[in-house]
Design brief:
The structure holds two protein chains of two kinds. By secondary structure, chain A is mostly beta strands. Helix content of chain A is 4%, strand content 49%. In chain A, strands 1-28-27-26 form a four-stranded antiparallel sheet, with no helix packed on it. In chain A, strands 2-3-4-5 form a four-stranded antiparallel sheet, with no helix packed on it. In chain A, strand 15 and strand 16 form a beta hairpin. By secondary structure, chain B is α+β, with helices and mostly antiparallel strands. Among the domains of chain B are: 239 residues, no CATH class; 191 residues, no CATH class; 118 residues, Cytochrome c-like domain (Cytochrome Bc1 Complex, Chain D, domain 2). Chain B is 29% helix and 9% strand. The chains are: A mainly beta, B alpha+beta.
Chain lengths: 326, 788
């Protein structure tokens, strides 16, 4: 009797999972690569992933056939985010104020007016690029830098109503005069081309990533212990706790209705932009995912075993094709 | 699917398909319910409060004992204490009735944050905790952004490892978020990183390691890094992450044959952020091994042993059920060991405006709290999240929200039936260890050494008054409205009751200088640590002079009390007529009496000392007395004045007056003898007079002249008291020096060497002479001082 019921129980457990899982496949074995924190693709056959270990940054490149490391050509610390323009102009930021620029094959280090860790980078064009960071500790400074095509400068920010914000984590914009920066304790700043304005969106969870497809289709995700999503429809923010989903680290959009998310312990999924209803695609792993990005016909997500800060530092990289209806 | 994947599947379902899981859980309960081997309460999970689980392995017992030592270690600056702190050791907040438990109200703390217009709540100060102290002797400032605070009383840890083992679905099985059964009781799980929360007042934490690392930093300023995979896996309840990482997932607490049970036998992974500070001590400040031992100690604390039901407590248990207390305080949750009778569903319940504190934590809203486990409840008062309830009866009466119906049912019972219910609660373990303070029941005072009475003291009276000195004063007796301690022992407990106090119980005095003129705040120079409500007591924002005052010990205080005023005055040399550079001034108080107690010698005798201390430190009002000038006669709380009577004061005075002098010790008589000589050669005894006679002629080897001296650095200002100038301090008695760290009036010296090095002005020559000593003579002097 007991065995029978336990079999029933197992059967029910098995049926609890997603019913139409997209086919995520391991992009490459990143166990020895180090953590992977960001991925950016210009096309199906030109995708980058960056990360490494605290004192040793790593750049990986996919050429359509295989993933291989890029010789950075200099010692760099952990690399946290990558953004590109046109398939041959990439900016990468990392710990200790590291900023790299290169064509995908070779990179040079740029002078940066900060030693804070930099977590996010995005630009409307190669001569209008933003980078953000800060270590999130009381003695660190929430940092915003801007590149005008010639040099990076630190940007003065307004005093925030939200207290104790010591880090910004990501930046994204729909245009040069509509840029959104998200950060610690629910911080969100919007640049209108002339000034920054703080927006309160109803959460004090860390906001870790932002992406969108236009000024009225923006998604912000975050949370450390419990996931949170906020969508901006052009008028207001709609903020929802995704609990019991754990923290969400990465977000990507390529159409107005679908928000792709990646987070703690293999959390993967699609949110309907308007309803914020989740379609679960989570991986069977306890490794954390940190970023998700789509290029060409494929989505890529990367992460690492961030729970183990003293190593060994293991990465993870998965890919899947967009479905026909995506 | 490998084991790790199965684990993930399990958690994934717990995270994302709660509804399905509830069905699964119900099915499991049905399945198990139909089994022949009904789960039972195992008899090998219980022990006396503070004892390790009976199932602990020898290696675990070693870790438990080492962890106990870490929990009771007094951290100092060199260990990384600070730069912010509330207490200097873990056990400070978990001492009642033994280490691992809760604490009196003098260990309450404030949760602070900013409520913004969008409804979000952002923790402020140090991760949402308000520290009291900074290492430099300042009061840790309040965060300007703080606009909301809530009070917290420390939470007991007994049986916590057993709670960690309870499978998530067994917690979720009791959830009824939308009250679908219509019983007025909902019950929501909290979540942390996808795991079901189970620790903390709001079930906000899933990991015992995280539950320890957070407070280590927030309350002590001790930094840590997360345990390595290997050590996480070696914990008594290994973390799920680590278990996966090493390909194992069975519990080290006990072998579990069943694979499925093995997988659900682990705790959630700990938060992964290292903690860092800028106090000059390299991070991490606690070694990984010490952290492992501390976590192991916590995990291995046994569940309180319940008493066998008697007809009376069985009736009380029925009353407990009749009132539906067990709708939230469910009798037991099943773990791989069997039924764990914590009397909690570990879920969040809305306790209404009656208990709401406005603090959100993960999913928990401002009025939601975890059902407090009731095992061992008899000995861990005060009760409720903020310690507002003196008694279990009070706590029940203060229930609101979802607890209203049970409360009302209790109120509707006859007094006799209520008593049986309370008796049942008391029977849930730990009652035999109940104490009104910290002195264990039945423990006699030592007859030798620290804490022993003076020869000839009436022992029964000494025992009784020792307990009065130790006893926590509840709110109902008038504690507060602002206070530093809720008992005399709160500040005087090192190395035993009546002793000194570590850094975490320093008293903060402050005021403002306008030029050379010192202005005390209207409410006095003391800025208290605690209020009976969720506020930080008054502090003069414009203060530009802040001094912490370390708690001196009281050993031999009765002998000091017996020294004639004339003897003290006779030693004075206020105009340095002998030209030795040492003055020494008796503190003649405004009423003409000679002060002798306190850092400023501003209290004339023990009787006045008791009146002053209970008033200023405890907030208890005292009866008017024509023979006394000290003490507060009325305050603003609701308790009728006086809040302590002459008898109560007399007990405290008796204990202090009969508390024996610090025992001399000797580890190297030859070295100490040389140190004795050096003590004079250096000139220490110019102020630290070896002995003064009592009015009966008995020598009192206190190593103080009880006079005021200026030994402050040139740039010091200080705070005046009566006729004692701001820079003047009473020569600190040196007897008992070895056990009364930290040193100096502000406690800024953690070693005797640091204390000597801080001497200046009148003591400059002696300090210089000390600095010129050979290494051997310094060693001898320190050995001598340590022997006092």
């Amino acid at each position: 009797m007991r065995c029978y019921l336990l079999m029933m129980l197992c059967a029910v457990l098995a049926s609890c999972g997603p019913t139409d899982d997209p086919q995520w496949e391991e992009a490459f074995d990143a166990t020895e690569t180090g953590w992977l924190l960001s991925t950016y693709g210009a096309s199906d056959d030109n995708v980058f992933a960056v990360g490494g270990e605290p004192t040793n940054g790593v750049i990986m490149h996919f050429d359509g056939t295989e993933w291989s490391p890029v010789d950075v050509g200099m010692p760099v610390p952990l690399l946290n985010w990558v953004h590109g323009f046109g398939g041959d102009d990439y900016f990468i930021v990392g710990n200790g104020g590291t900023i790299l620029r290169g064509d995908g094959e070779t990179f040079t280090k740029m002078d940066a007016p900060t030693t804070e860790d930099l977590w996010g980078i995005w630009g409307s064009s190669p001569d209008d690029v933003w980078a953000v960071g800060g270590r999130g500790r009381p003695m660190s400074v929430a940092t915003v830098l801007r590149f005008d095509g010639t040099a990076w400068t630190a940007v003065d920010l307004p005093e925030l109503m939200r207290p104790n914000v010591n880090a910004f984590f990501k930046v994204w914009g729909s245009s040069a005069d509509d840029v959104i920066i998200v950060g610690q304790r629910g911080a969100l700043l919007r640049w209108d081309g002339a000034t920054f304005t703080e927006e309160l969106i109803g959460t004090s969870e860390d906001l870790i990533a932002v992406w969108g497809v236009g000024p009225d289709r923006v998604a912000v995700v975050g949370g450390r212990s419990n996931g949170v999503v906020s969508t901006f429809d052009g008028t207001e923010w709609h903020t929802t706790s995704l609990s019991p989903l754990p923290g969400i680290n990465g977000v990507f959009m390529r159409d107005p209705n679908t928000v792709y998310i990646a987070g703690v312990e293999g959390t993967l999924g699609r949110l309907d932009f308007d309803t914020q209803e989740l379609t679960d695609e989570s991986l069977f792993t306890r490794t954390d995912l940190h970023a998700i990005h789509g290029a060409g016909n494929r989505l890529t997500t990367v992460g690492g075993n961030f729970a183990f800060v003293t190593g060994p530092y293991e990465g993870i990289a998965y890919r899947r094709e967009f479905a026909a209806d995506e | 699917m490998n084991k790790a994947q199965m684990n993930k599947a399990h958690i994934s379902n717990a995270q994302k398909h709660t509804t399905s899981l509830l069905f699964v859980a119900a099915l499991a309960v049905f399945a198990l319910g139909g089994c022949d081997d009904e789960p039972v309460v195992p008899d090998d999970i219980f022990g006396a409060l503070g004892e390790p689980l009976p199932t602990s392995t020898p290696a675990q017992l070693e870790a438990f004992n080492r962890g106990h030592d870490v929990a009771t270690r007094r951290f100092v600056r060199e260990d990384g204490l600070g730069p912010h702190f509330n207490v200097s050791f873990c056990g400070a907040c978990h001492e009642k009735p033994v280490f691992g438990g809760s604490a009196g109200r003098y260990r309450n703390f404030l949760i602070v944050g900013a409520q913004l217009p969008d409804g979000s709540f952002t923790p402020t100060s140090v991760n949402g905790v308000q520290p009291q102290f900074e290492l430099d002797g300042s009061r840790f400032p309040s965060d300007d952004a703080t606009n909301h605070a809530a009070l917290r009383n420390p939470i007991p840890f007994f049986g916590i490892g057993l709670l960690a083992e309870i499978p998530e679905e067994n917690i979720l099985a009791n959830a009824d978020e939308d009250d679908t059964d219509g019983d007025g009781i909902s019950g929501r799980p909290n979540f942390d990183r996808g795991f079901v929360g189970r620790f903390g007042r709001k079930s906000q934490t899933t990991s015992i390691e995280g539950f320890i690392r957070g407070p280590l930093f927030n309350h002590l300023g001790i930094t840590t890094v997360p345990l390595s995979q290997e050590l996480k896996a070696a914990l008594p309840v290994p973390s799920q992450n680590a278990a996966d990482a090493i390909g194992e997932s069975s519990s080290a607490l006990r072998d579990v044959d069943d694979d499925v049970a093995g997988q659900i036998h682990a705790q959630a992974a700990a938060p992964d952020e290292p903690t860092e500070d800028d106090d000059g001590i390299p991070d991490p400040e606690l070694s990984e091994q010490d952290l492992f031992d501390l976590v192991s100690f916590t995990m291995l604390l046994a569940a309180p042993t319940p008493e066998a039901l008697t007809p009376r407590t069985r009736e009380g248990k029925q009353a407990f059920a009749d009132a539906r207390c067990n709708a939230c305080h469910v009798e037991a949750l099943e773990s791989p060991r069997g039924l764990i009778p914590a009397y909690s569903d570990l879920l969040l319940h809305d306790m209404g405006e009656e208990l709401a504190d406005g603090i959100t934590m993960n999913r928990a809203r401002g009025s939601e709290f975890r059902t407090q486990p009731l095992w061992g409840i008899a000995s861990v008062g005060p009760y409720l999240h903020d310690g507002r309830a003196d008694t279990l009866d009070d706590a029940i009466r203060m229930h609101g929200g979802e607890g209203s119906a049970a409360r009302d049912a209790y109120l509707a019972m006859s007094t006799e039936k209520q008593d049986t219910l309370l008796a049942f609660l008391v029977s849930l373990g730990g009652a035999s260890q109940y104490t009104e303070g910290l002195v264990p029941p039945g423990e006699d005072a030592p007859t030798t050494g620290y804490g022993a009475p003076l020869p000839g003291t009436d022992l029964p009276t000494f025992e009784r008054t020792r307990r009065a000195f130790d006893r926590d004063h509840p709110l109902s007796e008038g504690l507060g409205p602002i206070f530093n301690g809720d008992t005399c022992r709160a500040c005087h407990f090192e190395p035993t009751i009546g002793g000194s106090g570590p850094a975490g119980v320093d008293v903060i005095r402050h005021g403002r200088y306008e030029g050379d003129e010192f202005n005390a705040p209207d409410f006095g120079t003391v800025s208290h640590r605690h209020a009976t409500d969720a506020t930080r007591p008054p502090f003069l924002d414009l203060a530009n002079e802040i001094e912490t005052r370390q708690t001196p010990h009281l050993f031999g205080a009765g002998l000091i009390d017996a020294i004639a005023e004339s003897t003290i005055v006779a030693g004075a040399d206020p105009d340095d007529e002998d030209g030795d550079g040492i003055r020494g001034r008796a503190h003649i108080l405004p009423d003409g009496r000679v002060g002798r107690f306190g850092w400023k010698a501003d209290i004339p005798n023990l009787s006045e000392f008791a009146r002053d201390a209970v008033s200023v430190e405890l907030g208890l009002t005292v009866p008017p007395s024509p023979d006394h000038a000290f003490g507060t006669l009325d305050d603003e709380d609701d308790t009728p004045d006086p809040e302590i009577d002459e008898s109560g004061l007399a007990d405290i005075v008796f204990f202090m007056a009969t508390l024996g002098a610090p025992p001399r010790t000797s580890t190297n008589a030859t070295l100490e003898a040389r140190g004795d000589e050096v003590f004079s050669e250096v000139g220490c005894d110019s102020c630290h007079t070896r002995e003064l006679p009592t009015d009966r002629g008995e020598p009192v080897p206190l190593f103080s002249d009880l006079l005021l001296h200026d030994v402050a650095p040139a740039d010091a200002r200080g705070i005046p008291s009566f006729n004692a100038g701001p820079r003047e301090m009473r020569t600190a008695p040196l007897w008992g020096l070895a056990t009364s760290a930290p040193y100096l009036h502000n406690g800024r010296a953690f070693t005797i060497e640091e204390a000597i090095a801080a001497h200046a002005t009148e003591a400059a020559m002696s300090r210089a002479a000390y600095e010129a000593l050979s290494a051997e003579d310094r060693e001898a002097l320190l050995a001598f001082l340590g022997s006092l």
